[in-house]
Specification:
The chain is mainly α. It has one domain. It is built from 20 helices and 2 strands. Strands 1-2 form a two-stranded antiparallel sheet. Helix 2 runs antiparallel to helix 4 and helix 7 crosses helix 20. The radius of gyration is 21 Å and the shape is globular. 43% of the residues are buried.
Length: 446
């Protein structure tokens, strides 16, 4: 029965890929390079399909897998060849967000003071690979349509396969894991990924994209052939997988993203984007008020099945803040969870933390206050640049804006700034996107 279900799943995926040759065309063969990168980073490394799921020692992270390393390097080289042949306007593209370039550059410089400089260097190369993949997308004739085609195929692949793996291949799609707030192991659902949080993360990406498709891309060919029904089915399955993975953060961010997308359909609300800075400050003050007001935060966390510790995260935050680091410079690029620091924390937590479960805190641990400042500058610059396109109904900018807002909230309970994370790749795309150069998806949707 399991093999029949897998065969049906592959036939369904192949059908969706085939029909999208007309609906959402891959604008060039080169676009398969970033799509492959997207799938590998979003699901599980190639080595994980042939080896053990879990790594039981922090030292195991120091060496990494040769198969994964050579695969990603090959994709980076192919991406560099594509970008070099297209001869993009380097200064214009990279100079469009100097804060983003400064943040990536600072990450490279921070390798110098890492306790594990070679490991940091290898991880930064992967970070540079993210930028290369973004440049491949941006060097397409229409980056909006290219991104749309990629996200559609990614959703077609990961959503059905995750359902099949969980229901029919539990050795692949499920595992026993200890929660952050508990030392008791229980069944967890990972689908096509390695971890339930990863599953929630890619379902968040798919959920926001599918909502955007349903709300903004329903004209022309897209309105025929039951495409809306297919997208609705995939959205429902993504919601099911988010619930199954116990990813309240992903589910809440998708709901928030849906609210933003609906609001941007109204021209009167799009015009309010000129006051984005004021609203952002008000939202930040509102968040502080929630944390300060007695009883309000308890009610909200209880409503989503969580507690005031955010499922044990606050205890972890306190522990990592107690670790002695350079407050200005941090430990070096992606170095905090290596060596003795990770060993000490792994002894305290049965679930073996590999991130701080807060993107802002994670950035501080690795890059210090200087790195955190540069990250916040990147986020501010992204919002400032995108708001100029919202009033005109730029559909692709609306998608990137939705990812930007929801990612800011997502990183309160998960670490998705920098590194091999799809959310960070989408933010990098938003940071380097130049809407004035493109026209196809810039106009308001039907």
């Amino acid at each position: 029965m399991s093999m029949i279900a897998l065969l049906i799943c592959f036939v369904f995926v192949a059908f969706l890929f085939s029909r999208d040759r007309e609906l959402r065309q891959m604008s060039s063969p080169a676009l398969w390079i970033p799509l492959t990168w997207f799938v590998i980073l979003g699901t599980r490394p190639l080595s994980a399909w042939f080896g053990n799921r879990e790594i039981d020692s922090a030292d195991a992270f120091l060496e990494g897998s040769p198969l994964d390393r050579y695969t990603l390097v090959a994709l980076i080289v192919l991406g560099m060849i594509v970008v070099a042949r297209r001869r993009p306007e380097w200064y214009r593209v990279l100079g469009s967000n100097i804060w983003f370039v400064a943040f990536i550059g600072y990450c490279a410089i921070s390798i110098v003071w890492s306790d594990f400089p070679f490991v940091s260097f290898k991880r930064w190369v992967r970070e540079a690979g993210n930028v290369i993949m973004v440049l491949v997308i941006l060097s397409e004739e229409d980056p909006g349509r290219a991104t749309r085609a990629m996200l559609a195929r990614f959703a077609y692949l990961v959503i059905p396969l995750s359902v099949v793996f969980i229901r029919f291949f539990p050795a692949i799609g499920t595992y026993y894991s200890s929660d952050i707030s508990s030392d008791i192991s229980s069944m967890a659902y990972s689908g096509i990924t390695l971890h339930k949080n990863m599953l929630g993360s890619i379902m968040y990406i798919c959920g926001v994209y599918l909502l955007w498709e349903l709300l903004y891309m329903r004209g022309g060919k897209e309105g025929r052939g039951g495409d809306a029904a297919v997208m609705t089915l995939l959205l429902m399955l993504a919601g099911y997988l988010m619930v199954l993975s116990s990813s309240s953060t992903s589910l809440l961010c998708v709901v928030l993203g849906g609210g933003i997308l609906l609001a941007m359909k109204l021209s009167c609300l799009r015009r309010q984007s000129r006051h984005l800075g004021v609203y952002t400050i008000a939202a930040a003050l509102g968040m502080l008020g929630l944390f300060s007001a007695h009883g309000v935060l308890e009610a909200i966390t209880a409503a989503v099945g969580r507690d005031l510790t955010f499922t044990g995260r606050t205890e972890l935050w306190n522990d990592v803040l107690d670790v002695s680091i350079n407050p200005l410079l941090g430990t070096g690029y992606q170095s905090f969870w290596l060596g003795s620091r990770a060993d000490d924390l792994w002894e305290r937590y049965l679930f073996l933390p590999r991130q701080a479960h807060n993107g802002y805190l994670e950035t501080y641990l690795n890059g210090g206050l200087l790195g955190l400042f540069l990250l916040l500058a990147v986020m501010v610059s992204v919002g400032s640049r995108l708001k100029e396109e919202l009033e005109d109904g730029n559909r692709f900018a609306i998608l990137l804006f939705t990812f930007w807002i929801t990612a800011l909230f997502y990183n309160f309970t998960e670490s998705r700034f920098g590194g091999p994370h799809l959310i960070w790749i989408m933010l990098s795309l938003a940071a380097l996107y130049q809407p004035s150069r493109y026209r196809s998806l810039d106009a308001a949707g039907p």
